[in-house]
């Protein structure tokens, strides 16, 4: 039975629907060897009845990689975990935080905050089914729940069921009245409650998530909890990942900068294009790469407009990168003039 260390969970990128697909994960891995990456949430039904290779297959370079499952039936979750285990995942994570209508209609995701005993049963079933670490990603409560009671009650039950780690998005989810997008921003963050949870459960590895956008913020959280998880910040500013290995693990960054990340990604892109993949399915994950640099807007505009064209290839990406190089050179000339 595998277990998780604090170093395993010290930094992770969040599972994000329609964002963290295999192309995104491969790109992110180029910029951090140590980041723990997560798949998009897959429902138990999709795993059991769907195209398993398409849904669960990934490049070995993406590891360490966690699979996030959505479901509320312990037997189905156990079956999905057993199906997934041979693919080589490093962790199975249960979604107890997503507030979308699709998830609510399936009575899982954040709805499960209301049923902590069922969550514990789900964890037990998956622990019995596989040798992988089984973890839970949750909110601090839903709707009118009192957050401390809801969060601590859930933690108590999943610890008893053998949960290997808890990832806490430090805000409530409102199942009615707020859209999934609003649920990522509107409910107030309560980091202090997650710190309190760690003090109450010192042996449970705890990762904090929600609204974390800078390396300074990450280091501040790591004084109180074992791990930090970032979502949109990593997606909209991928170069942030280049700071992870040196600043959080004391190891050299794999690449020098965003330009080097593009060069490193090109062989993967070429392989995928030969397999019939569209360029835009890979480059859409790169649009934030040069955020804040001269030429970043032209880079985004060119990629967004041209990578979708039939037959678009690597030269389209390189032309977009040249927009940044030229703008950077113009700025340097103006500064030195």
Q: What's the helix count?
A: 17
Unreliable residue stretches: none
Shape, per Cα inertia axes: globular
Structural class: alpha/beta
**Estimated radius of gyration:** 20 Å
The main sheet comes to: 9 strands, parallel
What is the strand tally?
9
Distance between the termini: 64 Å
Fraction of residues in H or I helices: 40-55%
Strand content: 5-15%
Mean pLDDT over the full residue set: 94
Q: In sequence order, what are the helices and strands, one letter per element? A: HEHEEHHEHEHHEHEHHEHEHHHHHH
Short description:
The chain is α/β, with parallel strands linked by helices and 337 residues long. The chain contains 17 helices and nine strands.
Protein topology:
Elements: H1 6-9, E1 11-13, H2 22-31, E2 37-38, E3 42-43, H3 44-49, H4 52-56, E4 65-70, H5 74-84, E5 91-96, H6 101-105, H7 116-129, E6 134-138, H8 147-160, E7 165-169, H9 180-183, H10 191-200, E8 206-209, H11 215-221, E9 227-230, H12 232-236, H13 244-249, H14 258-274, H15 280-283, H16 296-306, H17 314-336
Parallel strand pairs: 1-9, 2-4, 3-4, 4-5, 5-6, 6-7, 7-8, 8-9
Helix pairs in contact: 2-14, 5-7, 7-8, 14-17, 16-17
Write up what this structure looks like:
The protein has 337 residues and is of the alpha/beta class. It is built from 17 helices and nine strands. Strands 1, 2, 3, 4, 5, 6, 7, 8 and 9 form a nine-stranded parallel sheet that branches. β6 (134-138), α8 (147-160) and β7 form a beta-alpha-beta unit. α14 runs antiparallel to α17. The chain is globular and about 65 Å long. The termini are far apart. The relative contact order is 0.12. The mean pLDDT is 94.
